[in-house]
Amino acid sequence: MSGKTRHHAPRPAVTAASPCPCGLDAAYGDCCGALHDGRRTASTAERLMRSRYSAFAVQDAAYLLRTWHSSTRPGSLEFDPGMRWTRLEILGTTDGTPFHQEGTVEFRAHYTAHGHADSQAENSRFVREDGRWVYVAEV
User: Fold this and answer.
1) N or C: lower Cβ tally within 10 Å for the chain?
2) What is the pLDDT of residues 52-67, one digit of tens each?
3) All residues at 6 or more sequence positions from 104 whose CB lies less than 8 Å from its CB, including other chains
4) Is 28 within 8 Å of 54 (Cβ atoms)?
């Protein structure tokens, strides 16, 4: 290793008044921030998906782990400091309403990694565990 320090552009701070990273027309504090800090819980699988995307955007590992199914939850999470999540597209859902016990959410998450724009598409499975929506795995 060369001993040179890599500098990354500072990550813009997301405040309670900032637009929510999940893409809904609401301030972060009233939208996903309320789920992240425990004031509310996700009523649908899609809402949980959006809040988990926002948790990646604001680097809230505790929320991500808390909303991961106990059978598939990793022991810890680390974030790549050169990655910035930029936009979420929900492509489709099956079930996952307040009246269901499971559902899927198909989405495309856009990001910039070390200066290069890209996206990740996934179809995720969600179930209720102890009455709350949690992420299980990619379908």
Assistant:
1) N
2) 999 999 999 999 999 9
3) 45, 93, 94, 95, 96, 123, 124, 125, 126, 139
4) yes
